[in-house]
UniProtKB/TrEMBL annotation:
Active-site annotation: 67 (proton acceptor)
Cellular compartment(s): Cytoplasm
EC code: 2.7.1.23
Record's function text: Involved in the regulation of the intracellular balance of NAD and NADP, and is a key enzyme in the biosynthesis of NADP. Catalyzes specifically the phosphorylation on 2'-hydroxyl of the adenosine moiety of NAD to yield NADP.
Cofactors that this protein relies on: a divalent metal cation
Name of the protein in its database record: NAD kinase
Enzyme class: transferase
Reaction catalysed by this enzyme: NAD(+) + ATP = ADP + NADP(+) + H(+)
Annotated organism of origin: Micromonospora parastrephiae
This protein's UniProt keywords: ATP-binding, Cytoplasm, Kinase, NAD, NADP, Nucleotide-binding, Transferase
Record-listed NAD(+) binding positions: 67-68, 136-137, 164, 166, 201
Signal peptide bounds: none
Domain of life of the native organism: Bacteria
């Protein structure tokens, strides 16, 4: 492993984490690269390259941020999947595993291949002729004040019914903890192969989540009476104000490779995070539930960057 590609959170300060990686790379004589647009955010020793070459030239990717950054790293390498190590700078990540203080040891384990790979599927989508991928979900979302998304559902060419809702979310097992979960969809084990379609705030038509086989081909087609629709891929707007057309979706296995250093610990963390999401408390209210000594220690910690 000679070269590592850095994928940076678009807005958060990554200086400290990049510094840790740069010092480690210098000691181990490894090269670092970053997309040219981010060269002002990294030391001069990090090579700027065209955005579409970072994943192809690197032996592994280091995602610095939260789940959104991690998803971007996975999408960038979908044509030639590379191991992606996630470093946590977000607020509530389900994909990232490593905290900044753990990074030097994590990089050494990456170098010595002392890790396991967690394979992730994606949704390969044809949006009115444009080919895109999503590792979490694709969503058809109504524009505020413009009515409802009205779309028909076909599976393997057979019409199944229609949706009339604020949004229609199609997710992978990984994405089942994201938008689909917020809309009332089920949690799908990451070890399962399945596609979930969940309507958000349905007014008519199909009103429950539908779980489909990965072999089934999905088609969502806007009806003539649908409001203008925003198409989101992994939470990012791909198409704005669409009023006609269809989205064809298929499931692609082994499209992303996530580095896992301690799978059991990672799973336990995510179980705790999911439990916290179901508690009707604000973060400051949760702190009040801690024992006094632990709460006092937590209050003395410096605020996160």
């Amino acid at each position: 492993m000679s070269g590592l590609g850095l994928v940076l959170h678009p807005t958060r300060d990554v200086t400290e984490v990049v510094g840790i990686i740069e010092r480690w790379a210098t000691r181990h004589r490894k090269s670092l690269m970053v997309r040219a647009e981010d060269k002002h955010r990294v030391p001069a020793s990090v090579e700027p390259v065209p955005a579409d070459e970072v994943a192809s030239r690197a032996d592994a990717l280091i995602s610095i941020g939260g789940d959104g950054t991690m998803l971007g790293a996975l999408r960038s390498a979908v044509l030639d999947p590379k191991p992606v190590l996630g470093v946590h700078l977000g607020r509530l990540g389900f994909l990232v595993e490593v905290e900044p203080p753990e990074l030097p040891d994590a990089l050494s384990r990456l170098l010595s291949k002392d890790f396991t790979i967690e394979s992730h599927a994606c949704l390969a989508c044809d949006v009115c002729g444009d080919n895109v991928v999503a590792f979490n979900d694709i969503a058809l979302v109504r524009q505020p004040g413009s009515g409802f998304v009205t779309a028909t559902l076909a599976v393997d060419g057979q019409q199944y019914g229609y949706y009339r809702a604020d949004a229609v979310v199609v997710s992978t097992p990984t994405g089942s903890t994201a938008y689909s979960y917020a809309a009332g969809g089920p949690l799908i084990s990451p070890a399962a192969d399945a596609v979930v379609i969940t309507p958000s705030a349905p007014m008519a038509g199909i009103s429950r989540s539908v779980v489909l086989s990965p072999e089934e081909k999905i088609r969502l087609e806007l009806e003539a009476n649908s409001s203008a629709v925003v198409v989101e891929m992994d939470g990012r707007v791909f198409r704005d104000a669409a009023t006609e057309g269809a989205v064809d979706i298929s499931y692609r296995r082994n499209a992303g490779l996530v580095v896992r250093l301690d799978p059991l610990r990672y799973q336990e963390r995510n179980q705790l995070k999911l439990g916290l999401l179901d508690l009707p408390f604000l973060p400051e209210q949760l702190r009040e539930l801690l024992p006094h000594d632990l709460r006092k220690t937590q209050e003395e910690l410096p605020p996160p960057c």
